[in-house]
Structure formats: C-alpha cells, structure tokens
Amino acid sequence: MKQPIKVTYKYTSSAYKANQWLHSLPDVITCDFEAAVKYSKEQIEEWKQQLENENLPKLERKRLESLISATALDHPSHVKITHLQIGISETEAYVFILDNKKITDLVLTFLTTTKKKQVWHNASYDFRLIYYFTGKFPVNYEDTALFAKCVLNHVDTQQAKVGLKQLAGSQYGAWAIAPDNFVLEQMYDEKVLLYAATDACATMWVWNKLNAYIKEQNDCN
C-alpha cells in the first residue's frame, strides 16, 4: 500500500522570524488561512445569560444570537485569522501563527504587495478575509479550485468535485481534523499546525499536477 506523502513544516509567531522566511520564499508559493471565531468562551457564556432576560429588546436579542451562533465561515467581522500557511514544495511548508498584531500586519502586507505568484485553493473564502482586513487583494495569484473545475468540468457533479481533499486525499491521506480544533485556544496545537501545513503542500501538489496535465495536452496538440 502506498504511503501518504509526509509533510514537514516550521512554525513561528515571531514577526522577526516570519520576515526572514517571507524574504526567502520561491517565486511560486501556495497559501491558505485558518481562522476562528474571535469571541472567547467567557464572552459567549455572558451573552447566553443576557438572552435569558425576557425584557431584552428584540434588536439586541437578534444581535446577541448572531454573535453566539457565529462560525469561522461567517462574516469576517466575527473572525480572527489564526494561521497563514505557505507551501514551498509538495512536502514543505511554513506556518505563521497570527497571535499578535505585528505578525498579522506583516503577513497581510506581504500578501497584498508581493509580486510572487500566490496559489490558493478556493480563494474566495480567503480573499474576503484579506479584503476585509486590508481593503486590498493580492497582486499575482491563481486559484487551483477554479483551475481544476475547468479541467474536470462535467455535467455529472460527482465527477467534477474539486475539494482539496478530494483532489489530493489519495496522496496525503485523511488529514482532516474535527471542526472544534479551530478555536483560539488551540492555535499552537500540533494537529492544527500539521493540518495547516498539509493544506498548503497539497495545494502545491494539485497545482503541479494541473500544470503538468495542461503541458501534456499542449504537447499532444
């Protein structure tokens, strides 16, 4: 049985170290975010208690309900970006832990100013975070989900699925982890860091395979 590709990664929450890594990157990189709801457990519990007040105005009740039910896929106003992972090969990645403003500002500035080609898988989710927090978009980018959709386009949606794990799961194995891992308290958890790194490396694998396929088709023609 074929062994899954083994991913190695380095991680940091130091802006100084992050800056060094960003300046050492190759011309093509793969990128991905992890995010979590920015509210603490204590805040959520407090809001739940406030909802028990029967005299709470309707508008305030709706507001508190929206805060309590928020997820990391919700509007960016409810979200904190916890990690940026950058793949530099199919097996190596950097994971930036964004637990302070200095490193967060550094990586967001990099993403919106660098001329290096950034490859994202399903960029629409990540780009709305970038735009919400910076008002800008990356300069030079590709989206492997859209790329794969064009290549695999089929009237049968079962044959045109382009989820990252659907495309690269046969190479990297089952690397998904439970949704409850994506909370602020687990930003340094090794399961989360490896998951993040694998996402970036798997995106590089998909990018390479898609480009190889296109080159092969062009050569045949």
Mind explaining what this structure looks like?
The protein is α/β, with parallel strands linked by helices and 221 residues long. It contains eight helices and six strands. It has helices spanning 15-23, 41-51, 58-68, 101-113, 123-134, 144-152, 164-172, 190-220, and strands spanning 8-12, 28-37, 79-87, 92-97, 117-120, 141-143. A six-stranded mixed beta sheet has the order 1-4-3-2-5-6, with helices on both faces. Helix 5 (123-134) links the parallel strand 5 and strand 6 (141-143). Helix 2 (41-51) packs antiparallel against helix 3 (58-68). The longest helix has 31 residues, at 190-220. The model has no long low-confidence stretch (mean pLDDT 94).
Based on secondary structure, the structural category is: alpha/beta
Distance from N terminus to C terminus (CA atoms, Å) equals: 36 Å
β content, as a range? 15-25%
Order of helices and strands: EHEHHEEHEHEHHH
Main sheet record = 6 strands, mixed
Work out the radius of gyration: 19 Å
Q: Would you identify the regions where 5 or more consecutive residues have pLDDT less than 50?
A: none
| Spatial order of strands in the largest sheet | 1-4-3-2-5-6
SS summary, helix count:
8
The overall average pLDDT, rounded, is 94
Which outline best applies? globular
State the helicity in percent bands: 40-55%
> How many E-type strands?
6
